[in-house]
């Protein structure tokens, strides 16, 4: 088990467009394991690799429906709109309302390099959108609804 330091707002890595994973190597498997440990330790529901300073398109999510590992995730369908409060492990102590799709379908590779799709609603949909945004250097505060 290895727990990484979570990178905080202001670190330029959070604003980079993360690189696609061209090939799943033992290092990527190790990255997935360490990201899972880091997310659980921080009591987060999702973590993107840039949040531990690694600019690669890798995400882990656990909203209580089991662990999802996503490599090179892409949102391929979305439906509905929903406003809800959101936070981020990289921006501690901040919560804001964000408009997201209510339901999304994401296509990604698993740790075996196989393509799979995941469709989520509610919190899972929100986490999928929040984490894939991280891979494009987008943070939830960019999308917060002004009051
Ligand atoms: Zn975040």
Q: Can you put this structure into words, describing what you see?
A:
The protein has 147 residues and is an alpha+beta fold. The chain has one domain (12-142): Alpha-Beta Complex (Peptide Deformylase), CATH 3.90.45. It is 20% helix and 29% strand. It contains 2 helices and 7 strands. It has helices spanning 26-41, 122-135; strands at residues 46-48, 58-61, 68-79, 82-86, 96-100, 103-109, 115-121. A 5-stranded antiparallel sheet has the order 1-2-3-6-7. A hairpin with a 6-residue loop joins β2 (58-61) and β3 (68-79). It is globular. The N and C termini lie far apart (42 Å). The model has no long low-confidence stretch (mean pLDDT 96). Bound molecules: zinc ion. Zinc ion binds next to α2.
Radius of gyration: 14 Å
**CATH fold group:** Peptide Deformylase
Query: What's the overall average pLDDT, rounded?
Result: 96
Number of domains: 1
Share of helix, binned: 10-25%
- What is the fourth-level CATH superfamily? Peptide deformylase
Q: Give the helix/strand class.
A: alpha+beta
Number of helices: 2
Spatial order of the strands in the main sheet? 1-2-3-6-7
Number of strands: 7
Please identify the top-level CATH class: Alpha Beta
Main pleated sheet: 5 strands, antiparallel
Strand content bin = 25-35%
Hetero compounds? zinc ion
- Using the 3D structure, state the CATH architecture: Alpha-Beta Complex
The unreliable regions are none
Sketch the topology as an H/E string, one letter per element.
HEEEEEEEH
Termini distance? Answer: 42 Å
Coarse shape: globular
């Amino acid at each position: 088990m290895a727990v990484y330091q979570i990178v905080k707002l202001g670190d330029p890595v959070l604003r980079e467009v993360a690189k696609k994973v061209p090939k799943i190597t033992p290092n990527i498997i190790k990255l997935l394991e360490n990201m899972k440990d880091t997310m659980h330790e921080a009591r987060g529901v999702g973590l993107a690799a840039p949040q531990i300073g690694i600019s690669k398109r890798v995400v882990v999510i656990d909203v209580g429906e089991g662990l999802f590992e996503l490599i090179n995730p892409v949102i391929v369908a979305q439906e509905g709109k929903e406003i809800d409060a959101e936070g981020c492990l990289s921006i501690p102590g901040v919560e804001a309302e964000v408009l997201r799709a209510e339901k999304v379908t994401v296509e990604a590779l698993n740790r075996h390099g196989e393509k799979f799709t995941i469709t989520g609603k509610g919190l899972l949909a929100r986490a999928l959108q929040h984490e894939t945004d991280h891979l494009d250097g987008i943070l939830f505060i960019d999308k917060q609804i002004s009051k």
